[in-house]
Amino acid sequence: MFLDQVKRVFTLARPGLLEAINPEMQALFRAVIYAFSIWVNKQTPGNMFMNLVFANGHAPATPYPSVSKAGAAQASHSNSLSPRPLTRHQRILHALLFVMAPWLAARGERVMAQWQWGARPASDWRRCV
Hints:
Blueprint: H1 2-9, H2 17-35, H3 45-50, E1 62-63, E2 81-82, H4 88-114, H5 125-128
Antiparallel strand pairs: 1-2
Helix pairs in contact: 2-4
């Protein structure tokens, strides 16, 4: 929805400009979503709807902190386990896969089309890629 509004702004620019920078716009949009959600151990907007949380599967889960025992009742979820957040290395790897891999794929597709790799003979190594 937001990207559609940004694309409307570029309709007044010179023809072909939007197609030239579209992969970078997509990557920037993904990076902003990533920076304000997963990087700070929050859910993405789509994950909020599905109630999904990224968790570190290699670390043991920890119990929720219980309410103090000074006359207060125990919380109803005191026996539940909360998942550990992703480590910094896991978040960096996820960012590379979530932001950089789609950008590289879009740019690679454009370069292959520009250099006409599909028009090469079947025996050419570039055709196999």
